[in-house]
Design a protein that fits this description.
Elements: H1 25-36, H2 41-49, H3 53-64, H4 68-81, E1 89-95, H5 101-114, E2 119-124, H6 127-130, E3 151-153, H7 162-178, E4 183-189, H8 194-199, E5 204-209, H9 222-227, E6 230-233, H10 241-256, E7 268-271, H11 280-296, H12 299-326, H13 328-342, H14 348-359
Parallel strand pairs: 1-4, 1-5, 2-3, 2-4, 5-6, 6-7
Helix pairs in contact: 2-4, 3-4, 3-7, 13-14
Bound molecules: guanosine-5'-diphosphate.
């Protein structure tokens, strides 16, 4: 290149020395590459198997995403994880807000991790969708447990129907088991149907109850009590011990009136205090006793098979339903048929048949 003539002016700039770039080009290229290329499902499996929490969390985020490409990837990861799953004790914990669920899980979880267990805590919170505010997630929960290297706490997936949220949690269990967690706690608020969903994915169902809180059943439906493998009366401490013992006797009597559970196990009623760390060990021992009992009598595998069947049909039903309602012909005519039904112009059965005919293009 022809050298520029230098004008000896105050404005002329002398050529500087070329500086080396302060950016590590190789690192930039690597980062760009990483950004563009998401982990393959095989890499996800390897990461999860090695107990890498970041990879585990990313995979759970894919499960929770509603984007079709994320769902597709999530399903591939789950498929890869399935052979490594199933080796945990799955415990469902429910109770009304304020009963002491998070305090209990904190103390119980610390007890488990002190024994060398690896614990994952998942949640199904039906409130998070409806009220946009979560009963389980809006406060600082399980502060100490969350700092334990052997504990993994994941809040409830918030998007979708209860069925959808439950399915995501069920799939998350598979990933957590693959990551080596030997105990999985599924927490839910005892206010509605979510207990049934939790019951369909756990081995042991623990119901937390308050002593002497007025209404004997505290709005807990009889059906939920029937599902319980144990009831723990919480806050059995300070001036509350007598009341807790009385409640224990009452619930023990009440449970006798229920039909025998299909597992053959007689549900136990215990008292505990999360604040004073009392009765916690006994609850763990009860869960162990129960697990030994149902493994011996075969109910453990029967229940897991029943649950697998439940999720098979749940998934089939959901997919078929989605497929139906997303069908353009159905979408086009559904509203009109609905109006006609409401105007008594056509019966709901005929309307349904006609829509199905459109779907099946008969
Ligand atoms: P959750 O809404 O069911 O998760 O209940 P929390 O764990 O947040 O507890 C609700 C309230 O009960 C809080 O004020 C806790 O401090 C209190 N609490 C929880 N466990 C105990 C306990 O073992 N003893 C006493 N005295 N209070 C407790």
């Amino acid at each position: 290149m022809k050298k520029k003539e230098s004008h000896h002016s105050a404005l002329s700039v002398s050529n500087g020395i070329e500086q080396p770039s302060s950016v590590n080009e190789a690192a930039v290229a690597r980062l760009k590459h990483q950004k563009r290329k998401p982990l393959s499902s095989k890499q996800f499996l390897e990461g999860i198997l090695s107990g890498n929490r970041i990879v585990l969390s990313q995979a759970i985020t894919l499960i929770e995403s509603s984007l079709p490409q994320h769902q597709e990837k999530a399903q591939k990861i789950i498929e890869k994880c399935l052979p490594y799953s199933g080796n945990s004790t799955r415990i469902g914990i429910t109770g009304v807000p304020g009963v002491g669920k998070s305090s209990f899980i904190e103390t119980f979880g610390l007890h488990l991790t002190s024994l060398g267990h690896k614990l994952a805590v998942l949640a199904i919170d039906p409130s998070s969708e409806r009220s946009k505010g979560s009963i389980l997630g809006d406060k600082t929960r399980m502060e100490e447990l969350s700092t334990q290297p052997n504990a993994f706490i994941r809040p409830s997936p918030s998007a979708g129907s209860l069925g959808g949220v439950a399915r995501k949690t069920r799939e998350t269990i598979i990933l957590c088991e693959t990551a080596g967690f030997d105990t999985i706690i599924i927490e839910t608020v005892g206010v509605g149907q979510s207990e049934t969903a939790v019951h369909s994915m756990v081995d042991f169902f623990l119901l937390l109850m308050l002593a002497g809180a007025g209404d004997e059943l505290q709005g807990i439906k009889r059906g939920i009590m029937e599902m319980a493998d144990a009831i723990a009366i919480t806050k059995a401490d300070y001036g509350n011990i007598q009341k807790a013992n009385r409640a224990k006797a009452e619930y023990t009597n009440a449970l006798h009136l229920f039909p025998p559970s299909p597992s053959g196990w007689i549900p136990k009623v215990l008292t505990c205090s999360a604040h004073k760390n009392e009765g916690i060990k006994e609850i763990r021992e009860t869960i162990n006793e129960y697990e030994n009992f149902i493994r011996k009598n075969g109910f453990f595998s029967t229940q897991r098979s029943e649950q697998a069947k439940y999720w098979l049909f749940d998934t089939l039903n959901r997919n078929l339903q989605d497929h139906f309602y997303l069908n353009p012909e159905v979408k086009k005519h559904l509203l009109k048929y609905q109006e006609n039904v409401l105007d008594n112009k056509i019966s709901p059965f005929v309307a349904a048949r006609k829509l199905l005919n459109k779907y099946f293009k008969e």
